[in-house]
Amino acid sequence: MIRQLKLRHWLLMVMVLSLLVLTNPLHRSQAQDGGTTFPITITDATGNEVTIESIDAIASGSGDVTEIIAALGFEDNLVGIDISSTYPEDLLDRIPEIGFARRLAVESIAAVNPTVFFCTETCSPASVFDQLRALNIPVVIIPDNSESGIDLPLEKITMVAAALGVPEQGEALRTQVAREIEWAKTAVANVTEEPTILFLYVRGRTLQLVSGTNTPAYDLIATVDGIDVGAAAGVVGYMPLSAEVMLNAYPEYIVMFQGSVDSAGGLDKVKELPGVGDTPAAQNDHILVFDDQFILGMSTRTGLAALALAVQVHPTMTWEMDMPYPYSYTDATGTEISVESPVSVYATDETLLTTVQELGFHAEILDTPVEGSLIVATQSADWASWREAGYTVVVVNDTADIPEIAAALGVPGRGEALIARKATN
Amino acid sequence: MIGKLAVWQATTQRYSRLLPARIALLLVLLVILVFISLSAVSTGAVSIQRDVVFKVSVDAMAEKLHLDYDSGLDYTARCLPGQSCVQRDAALIREIRWPRVIMAGLVGASLAIAGTALQGALRNPLADPGLIGASSGAAVGAVTAILLGVNIGDVLHSDAPALARLTQSLFAFAAALITTFGVFRLARWQGRTDSTSLLLIGLAINTMASAYIGLATFISDIREVNDIVFWTLGSFAEIFWRDVYVVVPFTVLSVVVLPFLARQLNLMTLGEAEAQHLGVNAERLRMLCVALAAMTVGVSVAFAGIIGFVGLVVPHLIRFFTGPDHRIVLPASVLTGAILMIAADLWARTVAVPTEVPVGIVTALFGGPVFLVLIILSRRGRS
Amino acid sequence: MVNHLDAQHLQYHIGKATLVRDISLQVSGGEILAIVGPNGAGKTTLLKLLAGDLYPQSGQVLLNGQPLHHHKPLELARHRAVMPQQASVSLDFTAYEVALMGRHPHIRGSETREDHRIVEEALHRTEVLHLREQLYATLSGGEKARVTLARVLAQQTPILLLDEPTSTLDLRHQHMTMQIMRERAKTGVAVVAVLHDLNLAAMYADRIGMIHSAQLEFIGTPDEVLTAPNIHAVFGLAVEVLAHPTHQCPLIVPLATNGHVTTPPEIGASAGRKVLADQRVTSAPHLG
After folding, report:
1. A328 or A61: which carries more pLDDT confidence?
2. Residue C117: its chain B contacts at CB < 8 A?
3. Domain locations in chain A?
4. pLDDT at C153 over 90
């Protein structure tokens, strides 16, 4: 009896132990590594050979890198992030802050005892990297060079994934972001108008800069077939705002950071800046405000950012080009709907219609639909009879939110972009 | 006759007591300097136990001096992710904090002694290393290097960030010397240098320099602006041992040579002609002081950026307590400059963790009010 | 020790303005040479040339037979002391410290008891010993002048050059200053003093040089130089020269006509120059 009990005791202990080992976060992260064993050595953006012993404690000095690390599933390994790491949104509440990408201090980074430090080429001061190396903390510099244009996020992802030992996951993320960027490009491929766009950076009342070539803003504007009037006016990099520059540029749209608008004291104050109020952009309320990291972070959401911008600056834009047709979707009634390329789209009520239109579809209120149309209906509407009449009907919940509607229309990415846009406006 | 004798004895006694009092003051300042240095090394965003700090420091010193001493601290303990370990703390203390604290001390001492020497040699209590163009010249040099994007690394086919910094420092140092020389050349008239026109020309040069820096800030991109801000507001955040080794000889040169000129500087307060009557080669003394000041300040600014007010305020602060005799003011300002700069840097890097405040802001923040108080107090003391 | 200052044909001008024109004079140990003359005559410039502050454009000053600029500043400082017209001190030194600076040319290392003794004696002699701990800058003009005099005395040089040493002093201290000069002269010191007070010059100087418009017009004993015609010629002032009641020296008293000692100058005319031109015809000047 006693012997048996002892044996069971042992068995239990072994089971508990193996369970512990299996669920151990350290162990799990190794599982995520996809078999890569540390240390690994990579060549980073500055050409340095970096040997990474462990990625158990990651510090990230730049928001775009943080975003990629989180997207690759290493959010829990982050022990310190910089203040520009605003996505995923709640990271800064949970993870210690280590300063700001442009004003790094070695001790603040060392204080979180990272096993590896990530930052980009634009992080400064660069001597912090040397100081960290002196503390035996490997430093991985991620490319951040305007020469790469809109493909910069892809390069960043590849480098981060390589440093984390998960090249396959990196490839998957890269493909996803590349596809989103491609969506944005195809979405604007058949628009005829070329909106004039200016990116305006404001910091309080002391610093106002417009961007030109060699900036992420230029690449983003080019991606959505806009004309960067800053670049057209001869601006390279960033140049101080003046009424002269503004009138010379004469933009139809002005793109701004939410942070810029806040620091200026609101949109009204922005319009009081020299020359800004006289632009068509200000007069037609076409000052587009986005989250800083979302719109120009050049990271995992850049495709969505390009889409969000494209939607705003191309009112006539149709989305046919990026439709993943045919697609199938299991709707709120549990029916699997297969959608061929629809002739046009109808919605059963005004609220639904607004969202559908916002998602970039040319839709109308359901009245007398043409044959081959797609009908988006709420559950309380008379969807059954339309289905019987042979139309393709996708049913959504009465309280359907944007992601659901976007998914029903086969464009979940566009839904995300719309949410982001709404959040920033 | 007896009365007269008594007076003589009293004065002689007073002056015989002066030397021990001055030595005592310097000793007290030295103790404070050691104390503040140790506190600065023990304090930072990473908290390290004091005994570890001391043991690491002593071990490092023993190693450098080839002494057979071992504190018994275990450096081999494995570093666990997310936890501090002796190995990293030791590296932090040796490679980051000590060079930083020592550089702050050197720069503080350099600026203070340069300010004292200039105020004496130019007979102007407003003279400041910045006023003769050394600081702004250095900043102009550094900013030019940033704007042109020159980098020794390009020649050496290396893109280590340290080389870009070194290039900027070299430009800064060269420009500091050129500017100071230019100011002097312009102020020289008929074989003599007039102090007032020297300061006015310095002012004009400074105005041009700040205009140039302002322009540079305006036309450069955000990244370069960051670098320029570093040069114009000063920081010890990017100091390595190699920088310390460059600055040491210059500071030591000034600290050793200038006290020998102390009595001549005293005589300069009578006026140039009077000093000359008493056997001082006023022109040569001034050139020597300015050359030393320009060199020390130039090399300080080259590595730490422009740090205002120390060179101006420290001499006034010392004189307020010791009187104007340069024989005590010069060495005391060396120590006090070092103490204040280490303290200012300590504050600058700990007040806003996880970021740092530029140390030039801190010195101006505290230096300004201190200067005002000194002016008011010394005015009261006179009436 | 032979203390001999020999100025030979000194010429000094700034631009077109000639400040000293062909002045030659000698002064030797044991005598006081007073330099007098109207404002702007070039007295101070002459003293600066003698002190070596200025280099003459032509001519030279010999110190014991050697040109002045052959001496190093420190060596020069052991030979001659200079008392400036006004002395300001840019930092808060005490009266004692200022006087102590006079010892600089003699100090090797740091001051000795002997240095302190000399300084105190000098301060005592100029009657400012009680002010020794006061800040120099807070002293009155006369007190400053006496402290400066003490500094000059503490320098213990065989040649003393004084630029209006008595201008800020009260009557007692004017005489005190000149008495000190007499005492020094007696010990073999050569004294050159620019003076404004002709009576003071008459009482204490061995010789007087009278300068007018950059030129040394007269030089000689007080009796020879301080004559009514000379004074009228140089200063443009009518005076009567009396015998001093107790001293063996002339006493100059300005003459008043209708209650006025001077008359306003005519516009465009230099009174003194014209009178001097007349004077030259009648009386041969004593050129040194």
Report:
1. A61
2. 8, 12
3. 40-165, 196-313, 325-409
4. yes
Give yes or no for residue A30 having a pLDDT over 50: no
Question: How far apart (Å, rounded) are the C-alpha atoms in residues B78 and B86?
Answer: 9
Domain parsing of chain B, residue ranges: 50-67+86-382
> Is B278–C111 a contact, with Cβ atoms under 8 angstroms apart?
no
Question: Which residues in chain C have their CB less than 8 angstroms from residue B278's CB?
Answer: 77, 101-102, 104-105, 155
Can you identify the CATH homologous superfamily of domain A196-313?
Nitrogenase molybdenum iron protein domain (3.40.50.1980)
Top CATH class of A40-165 equals: alpha beta
pLDDT of residue B382: 60
Q: How far is the C-alpha of C152 from the C-alpha of C83, rounded, in Å? A: 6
* pLDDT recorded at residue B98: 95
Nearest Cα residue in chain C from B277: C77
Contact B325 C97 (CB under 8 A): yes
Please tell me whether the interface predicted TM-score (ipTM) of this complex is above 0.95: no
Instruction: Measure in Å the smallest separation between the Cα of B275 and chain C Cα atoms.
Output: 9
* pLDDT less than 50: residues of chain B: 1-2
Residue of B nearest to C54 (CA): B273
Residue ranges of A 296-335 with Cβ closer than 8 A to chain B: none
Fold observed for domain C4-282: Rossmann fold (3.40.50)
Q: DSSP per residue over A143-158, as a string?
A: P--GGGGGGHHHHHHH
Is B50-67+86-382 a domain of CATH 1.10.3470.10?
yes
Q: pLDDT confidence of A13, banded at 50, 70, 90?
A: very low
Q: Is B96 on the interface with A (CB under 8 A)?
A: yes
Long-range contacts of B287-292 (CB under 8 A, 24+ apart): B287/B184, B288/B257, B288/B261, B289/B117, B289/B118, B289/B120, B289/B121, B289/B258, B289/B261, B289/B265, B290/B118, B290/B121, B290/B132, B290/B180, B290/B184, B291/B180, B292/B114, B292/B117, B292/B253, B292/B254, B292/B257, B292/B258
Predicted TM-score of the model (pTM): 0.80
The alpha carbon of residue A124 is apart from the nearest alpha carbon of chain B, in Å, by 8
Q: How is domain A325-409 classified at the architecture level of CATH?
A: 3-Layer(aba) Sandwich (3.40)
pLDDT at A245 over 70: yes
Q: How many Å lie between the alpha carbon of B356 and the closest alpha carbon of chain A? A: 7
Chains A+C touching (3+ CB pairs under 8 Å) = no
* Gap between the Cα atoms of B316 and B370, Å rounded: 10
User: CB pairs below 8 Å between A and B: how many?
Assistant: 117
Quote the CA–CA distance of C116 and C109 in Å, as a whole number.
Answer: 14
Kindly provide the b/e burial profile for residues A320-329, where b requires at least 16 CB atoms within 10 angstroms of the residue's own CB. Answer: eebbeeeeee
Flag the least confident range among A247-261, B116-130, C196-210, C220-234: B116-130
**Contact yes or no for B11 and C120 at CB 8 A:** yes
> How close is the nearest chain B Cα to the Cα of A365, in Å?
49
